C-alpha cells in the first residue's frame, strides 16, 4: 500500500540539539497582529459568553419562579423538566466556560511550543514564518480537565445508603479498616460512571498517541491501527453493559427479510469489530481531510453540533411515562452523549479562534486523534454508532476519493494540498504526475474517468506514439474536488517551480477561490450533509426500516 499524503498545512521541523539549545523566539506575542485585532478576537468570545451565560441564567430563573408559583403553563413545565434532568446544568455550565478557557490556555502555551521546536510553515502563505504546532494538546487537556470536573456534580451527589447499613458497616469494621463495598452503594449509576471513565481513558490514550505521532511523525502504515488500541476500554465497557450487537434488516427491497428469514439479525463479535472500525475511521477521516487553515477544527465542530442537536431530540422530561416518545434509558444514553459533546464543541470554538484563516497556530495530529475519539465515544457509548456515520458523509466521500492514491493506483505526493497563486492568493488544484516508469494502469484510468465525469478531478492527456496517454490528474481529495467542481484550473509549474507561460492567464479567467473561501465551501458542505443526515435518519429510515 502506498503511503498517503500528509495533508497538514505545516512542514514538520526536525528538532536537533542545536535547535533546542537555540530556541526560536517569536518576534511578537500577538503574531504580527495589531492590538485592535487581538482585542477583537478576545471580544468575540466574551461577547458569545455574554449572551450564553445570561440566557442560561434566565432559563434557570424562569424555572425557579415557575416552581415557586406552581403555574400550569405547559411550556414552563416542559422547560423545568428539561433543566431538572440529572447532569444537564453542570454540562451547560462547563460548556459556557470552555471557549474562553481554551482560548487563553492556547494563548499562554503557543510560544512555549514554538521554543521547543514544534513549529511549521504555512504552505499556502508564501512566507517562511514559523507557526506554533501541536496546539491540539493543550486543547485536549482543557477538555479532559473539564470532564473530570463534571464527575462530582453528576455522580458525587447521589443518595447515600441507609443509616442502618452505615452503622452496621462501622460496627463490622470497628478496627478502622476499609468499610467500603466492592459492589458499591445501591441506586447508583455504576455502569454509566464506568462508561464515562472508559471514555476519558480512551480519549486520553488517543491524545497521548496523537502527540507521539506529532513528535516522531509515525508512518501511515504504523499509525493506522493506533485508534484500535485506544478504543479497547470503550469497547470492553460497551460489551459489559450488554450493548446491542443486532441490526435491523431493511424492509426494502422486500426479498431481504424473506431471504434471511428474520427482521433482526445478531452479528455478535462482528458488531464489536464494526465499533472498532468506526473509531478508527472517525480518527483518521478528520486527519485526512486537512490542508487549509481551520478545516480540521471546523469539521469536528459541525459534526459535534449536529450530534448535539440529535441528542436534544431525546431529552424528554416525561421519559418513560405514557405519551412520551422516549424511554428513560434512551434519554439517559443521549444525555451521556451530550455531556461529552457540548464541552467538546466549546473547546473547538476557542481553538478555532486561533486556527482559522489566517492561522496563528496549527492543531497537529493530536487534535485529530482527540476529536475523532470524542465523537466515536459519544456515538458508541450513546448507542447510535450507525447514526454517527451519517454525519461523516464528507469524510466518507474524501476517503472514497483518496482510495486510488492510498492503494498506489495513482501517484501519491507527500503534500496533496491545493496550490496557491501568490499574485492573487487564489487556490488551484494540485496535481499528481504519471511518468513513463509509472504509467496509469487500466483500472486507474477507469476510476479516474468516472471521477472526471462527475467533475471531481481534472485529467490531462499527452500524445505518445500517436495515442493518448494520461499525463496527470488533480490530487484525489475533497478540497481539490471542490476547486475542480467550481471551475478552478491546476497551475502547471516548471522545474524551477514557476508557473508555465499561459497557464496563469488561463487560470485567471476561471473562478478564483481564496483559502478562506474554500474553508467556507467545506463548512457549508458539511452542514448540508448534516441536514441530509437528519432527513435520512428520521424520514427515509422509517421507510426503509418499517416496523
From TrEMBL:
Indicate where this protein is primarily found. endoplasmic reticulum
Superkingdom, according to UniProt? Eukaryota
Annotated segments matching region Disordered: 1-37
* BP terms from Gene Ontology: dolichol-linked oligosaccharide biosynthetic process
Name the chain's protein: UDP-N-acetylglucosamine--dolichyl-phosphate N-acetylglucosaminephosphotransferase
InterPro entries membership = Glycosyl_transferase_4, GPT
Pathway assignment: Protein modification; protein glycosylation
Q: Please explain the role this protein plays, according to its UniProt record.
A: UDP-N-acetylglucosamine--dolichyl-phosphate N-acetylglucosaminephosphotransferase that operates in the biosynthetic pathway of dolichol-linked oligosaccharides, the glycan precursors employed in protein asparagine (N)-glycosylation. The assembly of dolichol-linked oligosaccharides begins on the cytosolic side of the endoplasmic reticulum membrane and finishes in its lumen. The sequential addition of sugars to dolichol pyrophosphate produces dolichol-linked oligosaccharides containing fourteen sugars, including two GlcNAcs, nine mannoses and three glucoses.
Record's keyword annotation contains Amino-acid biosynthesis: no
GO cellular component terms?
endoplasmic reticulum membrane
Provide the species name: Meira miltonrushii
